[in-house]
Amino acid sequence: MALERASFPTDAWSEDMMHDELVSPYGRYFVLEDDGALVGYGGVRALAGAKDADIQTIAIAEAFRGRGAGRALLTTLLEEASARGAREVFLEVRADNPVAQNLYVRTGFVEIGRRPRYYRPDGVDAIVMRLDLRHVVQGDSPGPGPIGARRDDPPGTTSHPEEAP
User: CA–CA separation, 131 vs 79, rounded Å?
Assistant: First the structure.
């Protein structure tokens, strides 16, 4: 919850909301650790056999942003959605978060709509995005690459996110 509150100071999920997400049979959450400390997490809601999935959240500790952690989690979430049979993935991103928007666009997501004043209490719009997962899985788009790969990683090396219990 500390990382949730630090990452989303005005609209963090409550402990009850986080608990419900973590115990839901429809979602899957993964964490990133550094020397035993939590530095990131992400979740995807993907019902087995459904054609679509939703990225629920990605949070990265400030000290680890810009180092490939978000990309690693996103890649893992997309792989999980694909493994559950999803063909497309949706997400909402704050209109005032260009860093996250850029990650999603580079992965192949496209804007399909906006939800005015979606994020409360500050009234920031949500940009709704969609990814045709079949192209990423087949390698047809400039997708995320191997799990954990960073721009500065030597070829063939990755660091895998740890699965949440």
Answer: 13
Indicate the residue type of 83.
Answer: A
What's the pLDDT tens digit per position in 86-104? 999 999 999 999 999 999 9
Domains of the chain in sequence order: 2-143 (3.40.630.30)
Active-site option among 33, 104, 111, 163: 104
Three-state SS at 19: helix
Torsion angle (degrees, nearest 10) of CA 101, 105, 54, 145: -120
Residue 104 falls in the annotated catalytic set: yes
Q: Which of 29, 80, 92, 119 is catalytic?
A: 92
CA angle 143, 149, 150 (to 5 degrees): 95
